[in-house]
């Protein structure tokens, strides 16, 4: 069996390596085509492009591995079936499951390696690749002076030429606008010929100008502007003038990679979990704070407090009990202050009786004469405490305000509506302003919540994709190995066509799941595993058919089923007649 296992592994690893390299190359070309316009005319050099392609090759490896496994398994077992080697092995008493066991173990180890690659190496490669790509996009194209067009590639200069000779050095009729002073086109150089070349390793550009004029328009040194004054115009004629320009702006600059580290593609599972937890906290805080931000509009009938939805406070406790306790304390203090202000206003009007003072009077058993009317117009009850009629109290936290006091507050607020026109307009204007502020607050909160939700879903699906892409190597093997044993064809013909078909299904499902997760249609876990959930039963079906030596790709197999259906239909029709 050891020799057989070595034979199978040797037959599998060779096609796997070749197809893996080919798959990476094809996927890399497709991916780099998106940024092809950013590379044109910038003279990046082979080292920069090679570095970028190397990083993006690592980026494409997790997607290329399942395709390579599928093609190589189809080729290996299809070739064994085509040369009747698979039939001979089965004839010796070895089952199909035992035949595919060594390559299956190899694929399991490959899946573990794919997960480690996707979790530790790919994020770092993405960080370096996208930071380098950003630098390339910011790099200016190489200097390209075109006849009859202004060139603004050199900072603070505009250059126009009439004709450029084939040697790439000689130029006829050149116009240079100098904007270094930032005062418009007040400095112009015109020459009938020029020689242009770079030196010091293309760090500087030198222009030797011949037979021209240098025009400068100068203002008065005093800086005073007078309508009668005329600006000084200076013209300097020259036979030869040398201009030197720095080409530092054309260099490729290294941007700090930490600026890109917050992207989900640059994170491993540990960093993704931390980001998901942080965004969950932010979403919880946003949901909780929105109730406090609009509570001021409900002072009359909710005492300036809005109760959060059921389960939000408990869920916030689960997310961060310390932050929740601090928030509850702050809200309680805020409510206490607002209720204290209400109590002070009622006390000034003489319409409120705080329950705490009433309890103190009841303890001291102080009695007042019946029928006594106070200066504030409140009729006090009979001194006998047993004869005092208890008033209904409305509870707000630790303070107790009588129902009469609450009615007085409402009446005070309602009376402002029936006052004179000027006061009523002010009240209505203030109410409209408050409504608009609440609407603006709610709209901004909704937009922020949508942004956080999209970012959270993107991080969740990226986290589970690291597991799903690794497991897809096993799924593709379960499809490829039994299918190769069924079709019994090796080489790069029919197996490659079938592999491309299943890989397209895998790629489309992965892309659709990613988009659905970002839009909130499905959970990130199901979006990441969608392709595996669909293709794994297909692999199990092919494995079951391969064990029975089913001829599902032979025309005779379907002819038998068609004949059975025809016979059943004919028998049914004859029975009815």
From TrEMBL:
Q: Where found, per UniProt?
A: Cell membrane
Q: Which UniProt keywords apply?
A: Cell membrane, Coiled coil, Membrane, Transmembrane, Transmembrane helix
The residues forming a coiled coil are 319-349
> Has the keyword Membrane been applied to this entry?
yes
Membrane-protein topology: Multi-pass membrane protein
Main subcellular localization, coarse class?
membrane
The record lists the membrane-crossing segments as 12-32, 52-75, 96-117, 467-487, 494-512, 524-543
Quick check: keyword Coiled coil in the entry? yes
Q: Which PANTHER family match?
A: SLR0882 PROTEIN-RELATED, YJGP_YJGQ FAMILY PERMEASE
Know the name of this protein?
LptF/LptG family permease
């Amino acid at each position: 069996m050891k020799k057989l296992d070595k034979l199978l592994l040797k037959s599998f690893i060779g096609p796997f390596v070749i197809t893996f390299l080919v798959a990476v190359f094809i996927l890399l070309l497709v991916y780099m085509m998106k940024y092809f316009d950013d590379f044109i005319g910038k003279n990046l050099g082979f080292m920069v492009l090679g570095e970028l392609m190397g990083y993006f090759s690592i980026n494409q490896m997790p997607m290329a591995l399942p395709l390579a496994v599928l093609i190589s398994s189809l080729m290996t077992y299809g070739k064994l079936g085509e040369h009747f080697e698979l039939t001979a092995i089965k004839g010796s008493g070895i089952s199909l499951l035992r035949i595919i066991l060594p390559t299956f173990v190899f694929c399991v180890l490959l899946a573990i390696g794919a997960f480690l690659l996707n979790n530790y190496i790919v994020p770092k490669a993405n960080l370096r690749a996208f930071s380098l790509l950003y630098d390339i996009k910011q790099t200016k194209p190489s200097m390209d002076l075109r006849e009859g067009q202004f060139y603004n590639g050199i900072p603070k200069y505009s250059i126009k030429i009439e004709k450029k000779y084939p040697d790439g050095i000689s130029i006829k009729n050149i116009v240079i606008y100098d904007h270094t002073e930032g005062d418009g086109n007040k400095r112009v150089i015109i020459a009938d010929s020029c020689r242009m070349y770079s030196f010091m390793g293309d760090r500087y550009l030198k222009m030797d100008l011949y037979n021209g004029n240098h025009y400068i328009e100068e203002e008065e040194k005093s800086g005073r502007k007078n309508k009668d004054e005329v600006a000084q115009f200076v013209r300097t004629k020259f036979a030869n003038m040398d201009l030197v320009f720095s080409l530092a702006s054309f260099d490729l600059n290294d941007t700090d990679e930490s600026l890109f580290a917050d992207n989900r593609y640059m994170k491993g599972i540990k960093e993704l979990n931390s980001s998901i937890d942080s965004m969950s906290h932010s979403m919880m805080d946003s949901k909780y704070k929105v109730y406090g931000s609009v509570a001021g509009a409900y002072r009359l009938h909710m005492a300036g407090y809005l109760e959060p939805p059921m389960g939000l406070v408990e869920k916030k406790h689960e997310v961060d009990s310390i932050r929740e306790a601090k928030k509850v304390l702050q809200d309680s203090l805020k409510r206490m202050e607002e209720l204290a202000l209400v109590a002070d206003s009622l006390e000034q009007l003489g319409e409120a009786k705080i329950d705490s003072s009433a309890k103190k009077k009841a303890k001291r058993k102080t009695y007042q004469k019946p029928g006594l009317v106070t200066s504030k117009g409140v009729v006090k009850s009979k001194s006998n405490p047993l004869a005092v009629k208890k008033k209904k109290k409305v509870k707000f936290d630790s303070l107790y305000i009588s129902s009469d006091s609450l009615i007085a507050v409402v009446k005070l607020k309602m009376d402002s509506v029936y006052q004179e026109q000027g006061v009523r307009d002010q009240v209505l204007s203030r109410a409209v302003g408050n409504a608009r502020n609440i609407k603006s607050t709610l709209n901004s909160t909704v937009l922020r919540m949508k942004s956080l939700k999209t970012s959270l879903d993107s991080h969740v699906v990226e986290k589970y994709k690291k597991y799903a892409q690794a497991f897809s190597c096993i799924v593709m093997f379960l499809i490829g190995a039994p299918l190769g044993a069924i079709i019994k064809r090796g080489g790069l013909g029919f197996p490659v066509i079938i592999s491309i078909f299943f890989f397209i299904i895998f790629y489309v499902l992965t892309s659709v799941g990613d988009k659905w997760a970002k839009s909130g249609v499905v959970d990130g876990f199901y979006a990441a595993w969608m392709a595996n959930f669909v293709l794994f039963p297909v692999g199990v079906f092919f494995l079951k058919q391969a064990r029975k030596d089913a001829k599902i790709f032979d025309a005779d197999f379907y002819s038998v089923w068609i004949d059975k259906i025809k016979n059943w239909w004919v028998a049914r029709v004859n029975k009815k007649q």
